[in-house]
Amino acid sequence: MRVIILFLAIHTLVACSNPKKAGPQTSKADTAAPAISWLEDWLSAWELISTEVLQLPEAAAPAMLFYDQKYVYTTSQVSAPDGVSFNGPSFFGTKLDWWMQEHHDTLTIPDGQHVPVQLMTFAAPSSSPGSAPFFVMAAPDFWKTAGIDSEEVGLEKMLTGVFLHEFSHARQMNGLGERVSFLEQNGNFRYEVSDDLIQEYFSGDSRYVSAFKKEVELFYQAAIARNTTDRLKLSRQALDMYDQRQKFMSSLDSTLVELDDIFLTMEGTGQYMIVSWLTHPRCKGGSVDLKIAIKATRRQKTWWSQDEGLALSLLYQQLSEQPDWAPFYTSHPVTLIESIRNELNQIAVE
Questions:
Q1: Phi-psi region for residue 205, left (φ > 0), alpha (ψ -120 to 50) or beta?
Q2: With contact defined as beta carbons under 8 Å apart, do 225 and 217 qualify?
Q3: Rounded to whole angstroms, what are the CA distances from 158 to 4, 59, 269?
Q4: From what superkingdom does this record's organism come (predicted)?
Q5: What distance in Å separates the CA atoms of residue 53 and residue 253, rounded to the nearest whole number?
Q6: What is the DSSP letter of 11?
Q7: What is the pLDDT of the chain when averaged over all its residues?
Q8: Separation between Cα atoms, residue 180 and residue 218, nearest integer Å
Q9: In CA terms, which of 3, 140, 281, 320 is 20 to 30 Å from 12?
Q10: Cα dihedral: 68, 63, 94, 89 (round 10)
């Protein structure tokens, strides 16, 4: 079963016409922290991977909302207007204000919309200009009850990876995310604009699907090639297929090409976060072999942007002597495919 990802699709959530306003800060005394050690583990993993692997500069935390079968745990008073404060985890050493409150099967997400409690995780931009993005995710017990697991690495490790994937999108809202919102508002698409948009358009075209799968496997072969000669040869073959596929897409709507590049970048960097966590020596429970980590992250290879995006991230990491991940998270971002082309061009010059 695929993780439910509602990234940049807030209009699909059940909106309330009169969202409840956040009340004044509760006067109730701080309580001891609830049994949510998983939350501290997730935020610690983000601090580790974003600093050591991506080498991103520190940034303020987004508004966060987590929930289990009974309670919400949040840094947003909009989401817990009558909540009780508790001593929750800090963020890069900065103390955050946390509240918990019973949700009664309905969540008020930080932008004020009301949604039914269900299995989901997503990052989204704030509806208020200039405001920070927000992040929502179900607690581990919620996933376990839904029957979700990972045969390769177990649920705990995989959920930390899922958190890292989606939390990384919060850092991309002011760059790649804003561009997606602009294209969505100014375009005319047959399907909902999400990371599955290209798959929605072309999954019924058997020739397209066949060519796409060959392209993806070529990128993976290039990423894991044993020598530079093979890697360069396979990379260029894969790029040729990529260009041909996008030429066909452009004949239908040139905007699809840009969205393809963007979603492959966002999903690819998100998937790379999972692999980086699973293989890191400080991964809780022990690091995982790279091949197993890739297999666990690809799952059933079902979701196109995630699967090809991971291949592009792995290839970029292999092509670059010192991969620079920061440009994928800035307000003036680049895409993975641009970065791969730049690396290949530099190698050709050398």
A1: beta
A2: no
A3: 14, 25, 16
A4: Bacteria
A5: 36
A6: G
A7: 89
A8: 27
A9: 140
A10: 0
Domain count, the chain: 2
Q: What is the pLDDT of residue 180?
A: 95
Burial of 137 (0-12, 13-18, 19+ CB in 10 A): buried
155, 189, 217: which is the final residue of a domain?
155
Region of residue 112 (left: phi > 0; alpha: psi -120 to 50; beta: else) = left
Starting at the edge strand found earlier in the chain, the sheet holding 134-138 runs 84-86, 98-102, 71-74, 63-67, 134-138, 121-124
Residue 77's domain spans which residues?
Answer: 10-155
DSSP 12: G
| Residue 350 binned pLDDT confidence (cut-offs 50, 70, 90) | low
Answer yes or no: are the C-beta atoms of 177 and 263 closer than 8 Å. no
Distance CA 98, CA 65 (A): 10
User: Residue 182 corresponds to which tokens in the numbers above?
Assistant: 């602009």
Confidence of residue 31 (pLDDT cuts 50, 70, 90): low
Mark whether 88 and 181 lie in a shared domain.
no
Please report which confidence band the pLDDT of residue 25 belongs to, taking 50, 70 and 90 as the band edges: very low
